[in-house]
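PROTEIN DATA CARD
Card holder: Blue copper protein
Chain length: 197
Origin: Hibiscus syriacus
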Amino acid sequence: MASSSVGMACLLLVSCMVVPSLAKVYTVGDASGWTTGVDYSTWTSGKTFKVGDSLVFNYPTSHTVDEVSSSDYSTCTVGNAITTDNSGATTVALKKAGTHYFICGVVGHCGNGMKLAVKVESGSAPAPAPSKSKSKSSAKSPSSSTASSPPSSDKPSTTTPSTTTATTKAADSSSWSLSPFVAVVTAWVALFLMVIS
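Structure generated from the sequence above:
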C-alpha cells in the first residue's frame, strides 16, 4: 500500500512539472527579430498562440514595442500606446484571449512593416510564472479620435499592462518553458522510486 502511495506522489510530481511546459515562447521574427522589412503576418501564419504563451521581441533600442488598439494598429498611429518598451529585449505574456496589436512607436517604422497582430486563443496553456524582470510600461487611454470607432471585443485591455522586459534572448521561435531533459530525468527518477518502493 505504501509503495502505491509513493508511486502516485511521484506521478503527481512529474505531472505538475510537465504541465507548465505546455506554454510556448515565440521569438517575434525569429532570427530577424523586431525590425523593418519583415513580413510579420507571414511570420504568424501557421502558429497558434494561446493564453499563457509569451512573445519575445529582440531589437535595437532605436525601436520600441508598443501595444496599441486595433484602430491605432490599422492607421499606424503612434503616441497612444497601451504599453510601451524600448529596452531591446521585451517579453510580452499573452494573458488574455483576443487579438493583440503591436507596432514600433518610432514615426514611419509601423508603415515600413513593424506591426504585428497576434490572435490569442483561450486554451489549456497556463499563465507563465511571474518573473523578476524590469517592467517599463505606460498606460494611456486612446485618443478621442478613436471614440467614433465601434466598440470591439478584440481591443487590448487598458487596465492591466502586460509588457515586461527580459534580459535573455530566445534562440528560436518557439520553445518549451521547461527543458525536456529535466522532464525526462524527473520522470526516470519517479519511475525508479516507484519500482524500488
